[in-house]
Amino acid sequence: MKNIPVLNIQQFEQSIPMSNFYSNDLKSHLEKNKDFFNKPHRHDFFLCVLFSEGSGIHEIDFNTYQVKPGSVFFLRPSQTHYWIFDNQPDGYIFFHTQNFYELHFSKSKLEQFPYYYSYKNRPTLHLNSNEITAIEPIFKSINDEYRNSLVYKKQKIASLINTVYIDLARQYSTYESIKNVTSVTYVETLRSLEKDIDTHYKTKKSVKFYANRLNITPKHLNRIVKTTLGKTTTDLITERVILESKRLIVHSNNSLSTISELIGYQDYAYFSKVFKLKTGNTPLGFKKVYQ
């Protein structure tokens, strides 16, 4: 089986001894990693990138987004993505683990920011020229701090990242349609549900299973998901199954029947029916179109 590569921070910079953070200007980063940035891959960390120049496309989990000056992208661990550029890009990029941020802000979680809150929120934002001018110097400061060896280096980087995330969250909330969730409990439950689905979706597809893990009733769980995302719990489970099946269809050498079994469907005909219902195409049709 051909697997999608999963990259970690240590692979990107051996000369700076930080295993939980990385930063670079975009030109240098892409030049150093030209052998794989245009091929599907995953990360085991959070990624934020600002484009001040360039154009092209960025595919994230089979959704295609335009790259242009002012584009900002946010990726969570395990998402599959790649870039294709028409014109030479420039800007800044940084990665970090969840622990790197939350160690310095123990009372805050990355999921507080709307772009990391749920996989269902758009992973991109577009800034106008004035907004780029305001925020690009902070990205540069992050990169400068990373490349220097001053005291309180990690603390300064974490503080700058927090500032960037707050400023971008304000812009994101302005431009993106986000459902206002007033209940902190709902937010925490949704976060736990998405993590549980990500762990168990191949073998557990019933709402009752996830409700039991969260110590609530299936009815209440559906109410939470409906209020926060406008979907049902079954929708979330099925969407996670379909996403993984797409990854395997496109990026592995397995037969379609084997893929069906790998994601928990022993009956390929039933899997194909579910896949077509959700995507409008059969697994074979999707493979042909994508290729």
From TrEMBL:
Annotated keywords: DNA-binding, Transcription, Transcription regulation
Keyword Transport: no
All residue ranges annotated as the HTH araC/xylS-type domain in the record: 191-289
Pfam family, one: AraC_binding
InterPro entries (UniProt xref): AraC-bd, Homeodomain-like_sf, HTH-like, HTH_AraC, RmlC-like_jellyroll
Gene3D superfamilies per UniProt: Homeodomain-like (1.10.10.60), Jelly Rolls (2.60.120.10)
Protein name: Helix-turn-helix domain-containing protein
Native source species: Flavivirga algicola
